[in-house]
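Sequence in, structure out. Go.
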Amino acid sequence: MFFILSKILDFILQPICWIFILLVFAYNSRFSKRFIAITIGLLLLLTNGWFVNQCYLAYESPQKQINQTYQWCIILGGGMMRSGEGYRTGETADRFIQPLLLYKQGKIKKLLITGGNVNIKGLKIDDTQESKKVKDILIAMGVDSKDIYLEEQARNTHENATYTKLVLKPFLGEKMLLVTSAMHMPRAKACYVKEGFKVDDYPADIKKKDTPSGILDLVIPQERNLSKFADLIREMAGYVIYKVVGFA
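Output:
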C-alpha cells in the first residue's frame, strides 16, 4: 500500500499539476487575472536554469574522493537501464559506471546491485530487468561475475536497505560504499544507517552545475528545467515522508 501511495504522491507533486490547478482556478474565478499571473510567474521560475541549479546545489550530495578499499559496494537501481530489447542505458547509468571505475582501480572488491521490478498491476508495467542487464554489462566490461551480487525484490529505497540487509547481514560491522544519484543520496544513506549499516556515500549522476551560469541560463526558459525541478521536489518530499514514517 505504501508503494502505491508513494506513486500517487509522485503525481501530485508534479509542478505541471500545480500549473493545471492554477489554470482551472483562473478559468472559474473572478480573480482569473491574478491566477494567470501566478501561473506565468511559476512557469518562469521553474523553467529558469539558474534557479533550478541553485536548488540542486543546495540539496545534492557532493562528489567525494575514495582513499581506502571497500569489500562491498552497494549500487541502488532505478533508471540505469531502459526497457525494451537489448541493452539501452538510462539516465542514471552513472550509478554503475562510477563503481565500475572504482572496481578497476582496486578500490572496491564486490558489488551488490539492489532493485527489483516496480510493476503496479493495472497502473505501471516494468519489464526492464535492470539488475540482470547491469550485471551483464559489468561482466562484459571486465568485472568478475563472482564479484557481482543481485537483490531483486526491492521496489523503493526503504526496501533497498531492508533487503540488502538480508544479503549482507554477516558484514554489517564493515564499512561499505553506497552509490546512488547525488539527489537521491540523502534519503538512501539515511535508510541504510537506520538499518544498521556503516556506509560512506559516493554520489553519482550529479546534475548540479558548479561552474557559473551563463546569460542563456539566466534569461531563457527551458522545459527540461521544469522536469529537473519536479524530480528534485519529489525527492525532497520523499526524504521528509521517510523521516515521518520512520524509514530514515
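Check: The CA atoms of residues 22 and 35 lie 6 Å apart. The first strand starts at residue 70 and ends at 76.
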